[in-house]
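Section handout, structural biology tutorial.
Before the tutorial, make sure you can parse a SMILES string by hand: atoms, branches in parentheses, ring closures as digits. In the record below the ligand is zinc ion, and the chain has 205 residues. In the tutorial you will relate the predicted C-alpha cells back to the input. Do not try to memorize them.
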Amino acid sequence: MEFSSKLLENAVSEMSQLPGIGKRTALRLVLHMLKQPASRTQLLADALVKMRTEVKFCKSCHNISDVDLCEICSNKSRATDTICVVEDVRDVMAIENTSSFKGIYHVLGGKISPMDGVGPHDLKIDSLINKVKQGEVKELIFALSSTMEGDTTNFYIYKQIQEYNVLTSTIARGISVGDELEYADEITLGRSIVNRIPFESSLKS
Ligand SMILES: [Zn+2]
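Predicted structure of the complex:
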C-alpha cells in the first residue's frame, strides 16, 4: 500500500495490529475518522487509554472489573458456594445474559493448550483449587468450550480437587462439540446450565 502521508500510514499500521483488522479495513476506519470531528477520535483514544490503564481484575474471580471485588462476587444474593468455571470475560457475559445462573464465576483466562505453550500455571487455576481446599465450594460447574483444550482443562482441575468434598458438573451439551460459548444462543446456553450433568458421566461418553 502506497500512502500519501506518513501520519496516515502510521495510523493504519497501528490499527491493523488488531485481530481481524486487515490493512484495507484499517484504512477505511482511519479515513472514516478523518471525516468526523477531531473530538470523536479524541473520545475514542481517551476511552481506550483509560480502559487499558485503569481496568482491574476481580481479586476473587478474576473477571474484568472497575473495582477490587466485582459486582457479581459482591452481590449478596448470589450463591458463592456454586462456582461456574469459564475461560474468559466473554463467557461470563454470555451466561449472565441468560439470567439462568445465580452462583458466581471463576475466570481462568484461557485453556490449557500445550500447542500454544499454555500450561496450568499460566492460568488462574491455583486460586480456584485454593477456594475448594478452603471448603468454600459446594459445586464447580465446568463451562469451558468443548474443544480438546477445554476438556483437558476440565480434567486437570477435576483431578486436582477429586479428594475434596465438592460436586463437579458440566454444562449439558446443547452446545455442540467445538462451539465457543459466546456464540451459543441465550436459550440454549441457559438450558445447558440448568440441565447440567455430573462431570463423571461426561467422561464416559
Ligand atoms: Zn468477581
